[in-house]
Amino acid sequence: MSSLPETAGPDGAPFGLYVYDSETTDIITNARLVYWIIGSPENLTWTSLPGHSNCWSSPFTGTLAQKSDGLYYTPYTFTYTCPIDPTQAVIDSDGVKRLYLGDFHVRASFRQLGSLCDNVTYWTQRFITINGEEFTFERRNGVLGPASQQRALRAAPMATDDGSALPT
Q: Is residue 113 assigned to a domain?
């Protein structure tokens, strides 16, 4: 388990990967983090940084696909391979119950060619299955900034998904 984060993101929630308000009887599986990097990056390498949990797999590279902003991105999917125990949830200082996953600290190095040379725009998409129902959330960041349409939604099963996203 990761320790509680000391800082908060732009929405006031603490940094980290976690599930809100889980019940001790929940069955929580299939946590994935997908980084969608604009274009088709060349010579991409991922490096684990200090504190990165061994529970996260190496990334699987998916197929270039169009995102909701109309641009094309390549997905890199990391899968959480450790059991997720809902009895390990904690009440944070803001009174919200959170079940933290192992820390995720990686760095991507790559080259962009042509018109994308100075464009490092990416989507970060998170997936989790709770009691057989899959949920996802995504947000865009980088050179082009946040997307105008950020949303939380229920995802279709990964078998029918084109594979999805980047950092939190």
A: yes
Report the predicted TM-score, pTM, of the whole model to 2 decimal places.
Answer: 0.78
- The tally of domains found in the chain comes to 1
Report if residue 168 sits inside a domain.
no
What count of Cα atoms within 13 Å lies in the side-chain half-sphere of residue 40? 5
User: What domain range is 53 assigned to?
Assistant: 18-160
* Strand positions, DSSP E, the chain: 18-20, 28-38, 42-48, 60-61, 65-66, 72-79, 90-91, 97-100, 106-111, 121-130, 133-142, 151-154
The answer to whether residue 62 is domain-embedded is: yes
Please list the pLDDT of the chain residue by residue as tens digits (168 residues). 333 334 555 566 666 788 887 899 999 999 999 999 988 888 889 999 999 999 999 999 999 999 998 999 999 999 999 999 999 998 887 888 889 999 989 998 888 777 777 788 889 999 999 999 999 988 888 888 887 644 433 333 332 233 333 333
| Local structure of 100: helix, strand or coil | strand
Structural domain includes residue 165: no
- Phi-psi category of residue 158: left, alpha or beta, with phi > 0 → left and psi -120 to 50 → alpha: alpha
